[in-house]
Design a protein that fits this description.
The protein has 33 helices and 20 strands. By secondary structure, it is of the alpha+beta class. Strands 3-4-7-6-5-8-9 form a 7-stranded mixed sheet, sandwiched between helices.
Length: 807
């Protein structure tokens, strides 16, 4: 604000009572008010995201401005500034204009209001909600929602005092849990947030949680759920094994602050009598299976599995707070309920460990007391409703994000649930044979490494490996660990393997050991005894770019380039009379690069369905297409993929095994032939610096706060992410859209095909063998139609009795 000080304007510090006039600004900052903007542009301000110049503090900025009078005067002499700080100044020239703009308080805006128009009026809540959501003014949005919730609660209490509510069950039921019955430590905000009036107000909202213990109460709640515009629903279970878990209880919430828990299977000694589980679930079935009755949950895919164990098909899943948080900002917080409640609401919720214990002493939820379980589960439903009321207005204020949620993320949930439920058939005997063969190969490799090292050592010990490589054999130390010891990481070994035999043997040993421990030994243990199949868990809200991940087992990491990895894929088989069909998008990220960059050369190459790596080699090396050698094509492939992942000339040189100068010349030639790619990269980096995020074709955002970091390494990483994220994210969006449309086709009872796996850019289906020809046509058409880009999508489809042959 000191930049505004002049003969008519002074700056008053209301905390200290001091007043700054022109002389006061000079005394405090050693620059005059008219120099403050330039001063801030040089120094920067992290609270306002003004980048500034690295290592330039107040004294240096003031010294320069006193010497050169203005930023423009300094820049005209930038070459003369000596030392490291001079280098930093010259390196940061491209950000100074932005810093100056961000530091400037605009004083030339027209205000189309007179004095009467500035009179305070009642707030326009819907407009404020939209504005706060769009501008991400989280505290103000929380305060707005808290005020609205408080007013609604007050109105509801006033209404209830006049007459019994017809919308929701009475909170005065004998088994209701009064707010005072809940320990403050379980529901209050973290201590660090108590000083925040918004968090304190949210924590003080009335909480009325019921324990449903008779059928009249249940009927009352069922009627209220039936009439509700939206209700939150949650299941409590004996385990997280979605195929074999059992329901212990269920909870509901219709309005924030008012929730109920139905205990069904708490079986500890002295547990109170509870409603019959089968009868309760039958009472809930019409509500849960009604697609026209909107439901809300947190990670509803799990609840779908749990209900299906009891023959109930959950429909009408309209909102999932885990996915709302993920779409809003994939990196701001983890997307479990406890983390989101702390991040968005400032609430410390009751954690599972609080009621069930930790580690070896942890008990099953069926052993948790009904009273404690009611607090925990009802709070789950209540907080889920509060999170939705906080997150959904933000998404609605950013229409492309709301559309991404409605069109892709939410419709994908039942698709993934069906894939998980179906599972994939595994040849146990084949894996056992492979495991024995890998063990023999590991012993051979161990003997070879000992012979090469000239001594026996433990290959799994980083310390012993360090001694062998760097002390005994004297290999060059490429990198060190944080503790200062030579690194034996995989990237280091790969570099050393180009020139030394021992690191190459160790890499092969590590690869075989990982395959054996992760797949050939573990996969047979993961076969479900009832279905005879392996059932992975797909995760939508983990990868920042929108890609799916999977666990137990992790299908994304099964190697395909090594012979041993491909053999493991041979153990993924089809049931008798069926085959596996694998449909893989070809070079999808390069096609997305062509679409985003609009580069004429890339667009033409894909439109003519040329081998893009061969075409790139012909352009970069200046030879005819039919004269491109295998080595030139390999180099072009490394350039194509390296650049979209932000690889530097140094990284490319290492990958190709050439001098850095040669690699740089390849990069320069590439950009000369494909200038649209460079323009896209420059524009994307600039957008990321300006907006703080980049977007996919479908509007998914990846926030990159580190792009404004003064740490150059972090900044460069963010710049690489800015280039790659729109391509990775768009590819993720496209494969998800393809999954939704292919699954919709598979749901036709006349179609003998089912989606069973998604790995990277590939879909795998189990298809009746006599239907394969038709399935190829149908799957290909739906995957090709998943997006309309400036270049055609291309899907490669294969089939066979196992995954390896189908790929």
């Amino acid at each position: 604000m000191a930049q505004l000080v002049d003969a008519q304007i002074t700056l008053i510090n209301t905390m200290s009572g001091s007043i700054l006039d022109r002389a006061g600004v000079k005394a405090k900052f050693d620059v005059f008010p008219e120099q403050i903007i330039d001063y801030l542009a040089l120094v920067g301000d992290t609270s306002d995201n003004i980048p500034g110049i690295d290592k330039v503090g107040p004294k240096t900025a003031a010294k320069w401005l006193n010497a050169y009078h203005s930023l423009d005067g300094l820049l005209s002499h930038a070459a003369e500034v000596p030392g490291k700080v001079g280098e930093n100044l010259r390196a940061g020239l491209d950000t100074l204009a932005l810093s100056r703009q961000l530091a400037t308080i605009r004083t030339d805006l027209e205000l189309p209001l007179d004095g009467a128009g500035l009179k305070r009026r009642e707030p326009d809540v819907p407009r404020l909600r939209a504005i706060y959501g769009r501008l991400e003014l989280r505290s103000l949005l929380q305060q707005l929602e808290a005020n609205a919730a408080r007013d609604n609660a007050a109105a509801a209490m006033a209404s209830e005092s006049a007459a019994p509510s017809a919308a929701a069950p009475s909170a005065a039921a004998p088994s209701a849990v009064a707010p005072s019955d809940i320990a403050p430590s379980d529901i209050a905000p973290n201590a660090a947030l108590l000083s925040d009036p918004v968090a304190a107000r949210l924590a003080s909202l009335p909480r009325e949680y019921e324990t449903i213990s008779d059928y009249a109460q249940l009927a009352h709640w069922c009627e209220a759920l039936k009439r509700s515009a939206l209700f939150a629903f949650d299941t409590e279970t004996t385990s997280l094994d979605y195929l074999n878990t059992e329901i212990v209880g269920v909870s509901f919430c219709i309005e924030a602050g008012h929730a109920a828990y139905v205990p069904l299977a708490h079986d500890y000694a002295g547990a109170p009598s509870q409603l019959d589980r089968a009868r309760v679930l039958e009472a809930l079935r019409p509500l849960l299976e009604d697609p026209s009755l909107p439901k809300l949950g947190q990670h509803l895919k799990f609840d779908m599995h749990v209900l299906e164990n009891y023959g109930i098909a959950l429909r009408g899943q309209r909102f999932d707070t885990m996915l709302e948080s993920y779409v809003w900002n994939s990196t701001a917080t983890r997307h479990d309920m406890d983390s989101m409640a702390a991040h968005y609401l400032g609430l410390r919720t009751i954690h599972f460990e609080d009621v069930a214990g930790k580690g070896a002493k942890q008990i099953g939820f069926n052993q948790v007391s009904v009273e404690r379980a009611a607090e925990y589960s009802a709070e789950d439903a209540d907080v889920t409703m509060r999170l939705h009321q906080t997150l959904w207005p933000r998404l609605e204020a950013a229409p492309r994000l709301a559309q991404l949620y409605r069109d892709i993320e939410q419709p994908l949930v039942p698709v993934l649930q069906r894939m998980e439920r179906r599972g994939v058939l595994i040849d146990r005997a084949m894996l056992q044979t492979q495991s024995g063969e890998l063990l023999l190969r590991l012993r051979e490799l161990e003997a070879l490494t000992h012979r090469e090292a000239g001594a026996a050592f433990n290959l799994d010990s980083p310390k012993q490996l360090q001694q062998i490589l760097f002390e005994r054999l004297g290999l060059p130390v490429l990198r060190k660990t944080p503790s200062g010891t030579p690194s034996t990481g995989e990237d280091v070994l790969e570099e050393l393997a180009a020139n030394f035999p021992l690191p190459k043997l160790i890499l092969e040993y590590r690869g075989c050991a990982k395959l054996r421990s992760t797949y050939t030994e573990k996969l047979p243990e993961q076969i479900d005894p009832v279905t005879g199949r392996v059932h992975t868990s797909y995760h939508q809200a983990v990868a920042a770019t929108g890609r799916l991940s999977s666990t137990d087992p992790n299908l994304q990491n099964i190697p395909i380039r090594s012979a041993e990895g491909r053999r493991i894929r041979q153990a993924f088989i089809a049931e008798p009379g069926h085959s596996l069909l694998a449909a893989d998008y070809s070079q999808i990220e390069l096609r997305i690069m062509a679409h985003l960059s609009g580069d004429e050369g890339l667009l033409r190459a894909f439109a003519e369905d040329r081998d893009i790596h061969q075409a790139t080699a012909a352009e970069v090396f200046g030879v005819a297409l039919d004269q491109v050698s295998l080595e030139q094509r390999r180099s072009a492939k490394a350039i194509n993929f390296g650049l979209i992942y932000g690889m530097s000339a140094f990284g490319l040189a290492r990958q190709l095994g050439v001098a850095r100068g040669a690699a740089q010349s390849y990069v320069d030639l590439y950009f000369a032939r494909y200038p649209g790619v460079r323009r896209y990269m420059d524009a994307t980096r600039e957008q990321a610096r300006r907006e703080g995020y980049v977007e996919t074709v479908f509007g998914r955002r990846l926030y990159l706060p580190e792009i404004r970091s003064r740490n150059r390494a972090m900044q460069q990483y963010a710049e690489r992410s800015a280039i790659n994220a729109p391509m990775q994210g768009t590819a993720a969006d496209i494969i998800k859209r393809a999954m939704i449309t292919v699954d919709r086709w598979c749901q036709d009872e006349q179609v003998p095909a089912r989606l069973i796996m998604q790995v990277h850019d590939e879909l795998v289906l189990e298809v009746r063998t006599d239907f394969l020809a038709q399935a190829r046509i149908e799957v290909g058409a739906r995957m090709n139609g998943a997006a309309q880009l400036a270049v055609p999508l291309k899907v490669e489809i294969g089939s066979g009795p196992n995954w390896d042959q189908a790929h």
